[in-house]
Design goal:
It is built from eleven helices and nine strands. By secondary structure, it is of the alpha/beta class. The chain folds into two domains: 201 residues, 2-enoyl-CoA Hydratase, Chain A, domain 1 (Alpha-Beta Complex); 45 residues, no CATH class.
């Protein structure tokens, strides 16, 4: 394990977080997970950051759980009990950290995403995949366990239940091209073009109103459970507040002035 399990840099308004265990294809070991949570907290606190990019070092995005480290249970507990406690207290918190960030997030899927690595990509707002990347769910066909870290929540909402079930049971690799066709990722681009595609998207996201990511996530999450009538009421309630906010006023001024709006940061 390298000394820095996660790399972090801020360039202007864009923060880039890189999982950094390339020799082992960036598995989610405990030190890496803990450091990742620390960095996500830094992103939340740094009001100069307007967008987060999550990627992997080397040839892979993330291959999921570090199975080589899952060889011993805590004293007096089974391996399953210890693993569930770790998920509840650490791993699952990474997903909620990502979903609660006040800035838009991009997954730059530079290579294979497997197991919980798929969940990391799906937890971001926008995923862009290199053409050589693929998505793989070994949970049930290889290990006899259910998809975790939110995969079972995100996946059917992205590709539909039929495709999610087949991917889970058959364990076929989903190519980046097909993932884009199915709606699992926003776009599939040539490997060499991934950095530019991600940077271009990040620049656009960084220019959005400060509340853009949070409001959009909440609206679509609410729509998953709401009836049409309830969602119409939700939308009206949000517009009641947002139309009185500075961002809307700037948007109207820009529209009337035939210019691009300039929104304030966090």
């Amino acid at each position: 394990m390298p000394s820095e399990t996660v790399l972090y840099r801020v360039d202007g308004r864009i923060a880039t977080v890189t999982l950094n265990d390339p020799d082992r294809l960036n598995p989610l070991g405990v030190p890496l997970q803990r450091r990742l949570r620390e960095i996500l907290a830094e992103v939340r606190a740094d009001r100069s950051v307007r967008v987060l990019v999550l990627t992997g070092a080397g040839k892979a995005f993330c291959v999921g759980a570090d199975l080589s480290a899952m060889n011993a249970a805590s004293p007096g507990k089974t391996l399953g009990e210890s693993s569930a406690e770790m998920m509840t207290g650490l791993s699952n918190q990474i997903i909620t950290d990502l979903r609660d960030l006040p800035v838009p997030t991009i997954a730059a899927v530079n290579g294979p995403a497997a197991g919980a690595g798929v969940a990391l990509a799906l937890a971001t707002d926008i995923a862009i995949a290199a053409r050589s990347a693929y998505f793989y769910l070994p949970f049930m066909p290889r290990l006899g366990i259910v998809p975790d870290l939110g995969t079972s929540w995100f996946l059917p909402r992205s590709v539909g239940r039929a495709r999610a079930t087949a991917l889970t049971l058959l364990g076929d690799r989903l190519t980046a091209d097909l993932a884009a066709q199915w709606g699992l990722v926003w776009a599939c681009v040539d490997d060499a073009g991934l950095p530019d595609a991600v940077h271009h998207a990040a620049q656009r996201l960084a220019a959005l109103p400060a509340h853009a990511a949070v409001e959009t996530r909440r609206a679509y999450d609410a729509a998953q459970a709401n009836s049409l009538e309830a969602q119409l009421a939700y939308e009206a309630g949000r517009q009641r507040e947002l139309i009185d906010a500075d961002a809307f006023a700037e948007g109207v001024r820009a529209f009337l002035g035939k210019r691009t709006p300039v929104f304030e940061g966090r």
